[in-house]
Amino acid sequence: MAENIVSIQGLTKDYGPLRALDGVSLDIPERSIFGILGPNGSGKTTLLSILMDILYPKSGSISIMGQPSSYELRKKIGCLLETPSFYSYLSAEDNLRIAAKIKDVDEADIPRVLKRLGLYERRASKFSAFSLGMKQRLALASALLGNPSLVVFDEPTNGLDPQGIVEVRGLIRELWSEGKTVIIASHLLDEVEKVCTHVAILKKGKLLATGSVEEVLGEGLTFKFSAGIKNEELRSILAKLNDIKSITQQGDLLIVNAYGQLTAEELNKLCFENGIVLSHLEMSRKKLESWFVEVTQNT
Amino acid sequence: MLQKLMALEWMKMRKYKAFWIMLGLFVLGFFGLVYIMYAINNEAPTEMIGSFLDSFFRYPRIARLTAYMGSYMFIVLGIVLITQIANEFSYRTHRQNIIDGLSRTQFINAKWQIVVLLSVFATLVHVGFTALYALMGDGGTVSGFVSSLKYSLFFFLDSLSWLSVALIITLWVKRSGLAITLFMVYALVVENSLAFGIKRSFESNLGEYFPINVADNLNPNVLAPFVNNSRPTEEIAVAVTCVYLVAFYIISRRMIKRMDLK
């Protein structure tokens, strides 16, 4: 079982009368892509800001790599928080030199990260001359300086065109395959579903749910069966299974909601062994979006 | 660590055109203000004003004159500092610096390094112009130059005092336009008005001990036809200025350490 690279305990943060985080406790496993989901104003950025020591919590604690947060520890974390923040009058390269100096990273690493984010040719251009997408890429490049084992991206695809979004998604997967832990805060559910191994949902500062993507979506399997005149017989066979949540009929189709790790192959085999030949079998996994809506609307 | 912080601030400043333009303005303004006195001295009829001013263009009084005239340019240095620090807040690079691994104490220490470096720069300019105008006056002597260094030290403390006030105001309001306005109003109007009001109402010289006034008392108006007897002595003014500087450093550290960096 993976160790937790970040452990958050009972984090609470107030902005005046507004409670931005309300006793959030969360464990982020090492070598995961951890998506923090939530509507605007749910506390995602506040959570990451406290993680990076930008904001102070009212109560609660955070441990990163088994230690309390410190400036020395932050040097080992790559982070893009909200909007890219650089000196507008300096070039991309000069801005990264400043970040490298703070992080105690050799300047020789700068060309590597610029090439990786496709900015090497524009390294001498001033930050103020960059498009929003290029600024975002520069911030991602800065986060990768020194090859950190933990990277934190807050809305990493902000301002990127569709091609850029695909590239960032690829980058996140690459970082993960290199053994890094990636934490992403986003309100773009589709984006998170495509890359994340784990997710957490925040709403109005409260943690509503967390777990691996398999765990949270595995509960949302839907099968559509049809066995013609043998539908009733099929229903009674399926009803005996432990993993079945509900069975309803829509016309000629039996709609089965299931828990667990049931597969279409297993069910097809079960029907065949009971002398039922299926004329229709379709499996669909619940989308993150519908899970998100279900979780957030119920609270 | 101090070297690293200095290198970091240098990387931020060296390509910032406004910074160099403002420093250039400081030097030109400083030179120009003293030159006006020099020109009056040379061109006015001797019997009217020349003989009075002439005595200022020799050691050690030239150092007092340049210090007094140069202290008017602290406003420009303050604006340089405010712009440099407020930029961090407006670009939100202060947050990014902390995220990247700077501690809050290191961040504020780096800003205090700018305060000290700008004051060292101003002092070197003072020493240079003092020597230059002494040469243009009676030629000057080495012993005269050495005897005037005390006034360069006073000029340094005065500069530190002005800049520390600018630093605190910038940390407080974070926006350059507002910070510059508040700094100018405080330094040029508020302290003097309060000092005047206190003196008039309570016959007290308390106003002479306000942060900028007390440091300015180290570089008094040597052209004034009367002597201000309510001024603290040089020793007391130096001591009080140093106390203010330590207090401002502690306050600035507490401000940055307690603040949420939004």
Description:
- The complex is a heterodimer of chains A (299) and B (262).
- Chain A has helices at 44-51, 71-74, 92-103, 109-116, 132-143, 162-177, 189-195, 213-218, 231-239, 264-273, 288-297, and strands at residues 4-15, 18-29, 33-37, 59-64, 67-68, 77-80, 150-154, 181-186, 198-203, 206-212, 221-226, 244-250, 253-258, 280-285.
- By secondary structure, chain A is of the alpha/beta class.
- Chain A has a six-stranded mixed β-sheet, with helices on both faces. Chain A has a four-stranded antiparallel β-sheet with strand order 2-1-4-5, covered by helices on one side.
- In chain A, strand 12 (244-250) and strand 13 form a beta hairpin.
- In chain A, helix 3 (92-103) packs across helix 4 (109-116).
- Chain A is elongated.
- The mean pLDDT of chain A is 87.
- Chain B is mostly helical and 262 residues long.
- Chain B has one domain (2-258).
- Helix content of chain B is 79%, strand content 0%.
- Chain B has twelve helices and no strands.
- In chain B, helix 2 (17-43) packs parallel to helix 7 and helix 9 runs parallel beside helix 12 (234-258).
- Chain B is globular.
- The two termini of chain B are 26 Å apart.
- The model of chain B has no long low-confidence stretch (mean pLDDT 89).
- The interface between A and B is medium-sized, with 27 and 26 residues.
Structure summarized in a few sentences:
Helices cover 34% and strands 30% of the residues of chain A. By secondary structure, chain A is an alpha/beta fold. Chain B has one domain (2-258).
